[in-house]
Amino acid sequence: MKKTSFTEQNKQMKQSASSSPPFAEPAASAAQSETEDPTAGLQADLDRFRDLALRSQADFENYKKRSAREKEEAIRYANSSLLERLVGIIDNFELGLAAAKEQGADSPIYSGMILVQKQLNDLLAENGLQPIEAEGKTFDPNVHEAIAHEPSDQVPEGIVLRQARRGYRFKERLLRPSRVIVSSGPAKK
Question: Which of 44, 62, 121, 132 could staple 167 via S-S, CB 3.0–4.6 A?
């Protein structure tokens, strides 16, 4: 079917109405219903395209918001991989510090290492890295990784006895869970 504009349809309808005899009313009403159908169809198409345009606009707005949020997160947590690597170095530094303490807590090497550790911890805290304290706390699988259970008469079941490796948070995210040894309660006899 050939598409015609609304004005052309009106012209055709007027010509058919003027050329048809007065007793042919059913033909005139059929021509009138034909004009209503195309306009109704056009209106339905218009409504459908408006709806499609509104949906596309809403989808685009959601995309822009999601992209901005992802970009902000990428900037905010950009240092996380660097800090993950640095945390391993801190672990080794603390082991060296413990060994230096065994040699003598009054030695200048030990005192110097304590100062360096304090500076390093202050720098990391300024950048959003927070150590997770685990000893004496209730075991939380969201921030702790249990590597062993030990019986204990003094400590109730489910409480962290010792921390094998310190865990860290970077801003609100968990950077590395604490590896802990958890109490299994009093020894069974």
Answer: 132
Sequence-ordered strand ranges (E) for 107-158: 129-132, 144-150
Give the Cα-Cα-Cα angle 136, 141, 145 (nearest 5 degrees): 75
Q: Class of the 80-183 domain?
A: mainly beta
pLDDT on residue 102? 83
Q: What pLDDT, in 10s, does the model give residues 10-54?
A: 565 555 555 444 444 444 444 455 556 888 889 999 999 999 999
Query: If 0-12 CB within 10 Å is exposed, 13-18 middle and 19+ buried, where does residue 66 land?
Result: exposed
SS3 162: strand
Q: Of how many residues is the chain composed? A: 189
The pair of three-digit structure tokens given for residue 64, joined into one six-digit string: 């822009």
For 27-140, list the strands marked E by DSSP: 129-132
The domain spans of the chain are: 6-76, 80-183
pLDDT digits (tens, 9 = 90+) for 72-117: 888 888 888 888 888 889 998 888 888 888 877 788 888 888 999 9
Give Rg (Cα) of the chain: 39
Measured CA to CA, the distance from residue 125 to residue 117 in angstroms comes to 12
